[in-house]
Amino acid sequence: MELEGIIRFFENKTILIIGATGSLAKESFIFERVTPNIAGDISDENFGIKDSILREEMWNEIDIVLNSAATTNFDEGYDIALGINTYGALHVLNFAKKCIKLKVLVHVSTVMQIPADMVVNSMIMAMVAHANKSSQIIFHVCSSMRNPMKLSGLSDFISLYFTQNPWIDRSGKSINVCKLIVFCNIARFQAYMAIRYKLPLKVLWLANLVLFQYYGDMYITLNRKVEVLMRMVDL
């Protein structure tokens, strides 16, 4: 697609960017170009905007709706995650339906470990390519097939990064990071977790029972960490 055509498409367009203060806004080239900022809550109908004049103005002027709002906390409370990631998307859709000049609605499902400029470029192309079309198109943006990121390479990069840039715990000490273990399937991961963590936790639970809850706090803390990890895997 020619650059001139892309520029021409965005001329004099009003774009509503939802979630502009989130992860993508950490990139200065995005944050500096988003104006004005309108306070709202995606978990509410009409984003909680009480000003009826402002709502009408938005419905009359908006050409493009881009939704990148979400909670990316994998241990988020169920009510919060449901309100933002599920009902929030529905509220965006309902709001967009009221925009009389709407050309396209773009919903960003997941942005993880992908350069922000690559994400933004993909959004721009999606807007231009599918404006004024009623079809639902899903794009999957990832590393290229020409030079793909291999799982083993990702493991090495992560280990190297946290070795050179270690996390610091609350006492000010560096946290040692071991080389990541890569599992080829979920069954091997579950077997590893059962032997490496769940079995020792079971022993700790029995010891805690025999010793009148002496290890109660330790068991609760360790068990919670394992449960959080298993929930993340299920996601």
From TrEMBL:
UniProt keyword terms in alphabetical order: Lipid biosynthesis, Lipid metabolism, NADP, Oxidoreductase
Classification via InterPro entries: FAR (IPR026055), FAR_NAD-bd (IPR013120), NAD(P)-bd_dom_sf (IPR036291)
Reactions the enzyme catalyzes: a long-chain fatty acyl-CoA + 2 NADPH + 2 H(+) = a long-chain primary fatty alcohol + 2 NADP(+) + CoA
Sections of the chain in a coiled coil: none
GO molecular function: alcohol-forming long-chain fatty acyl-CoA reductase activity; alcohol-forming very long-chain fatty acyl-CoA reductase activity
GO biological process entries: long-chain fatty-acyl-CoA metabolic process; suberin biosynthetic process
UniProt keyword annotation of GTP-binding present: no
All residue ranges annotated as the Thioester reductase (TE) domain in the record: 29-112
Its EC number(s): 1.2.1.84
Domain of life: Eukaryota
Pfam families, A to Z: NAD_binding_4
Family classification: Belongs to the fatty acyl-CoA reductase family.
Cited function: Catalyzes the reduction of fatty acyl-CoA to fatty alcohols.
Name listed for the protein in its UniProt record: Fatty acyl-CoA reductase
Species assigned in the record: Quercus lobata
Lineage: Eukaryota, Viridiplantae, Streptophyta, Embryophyta, Tracheophyta
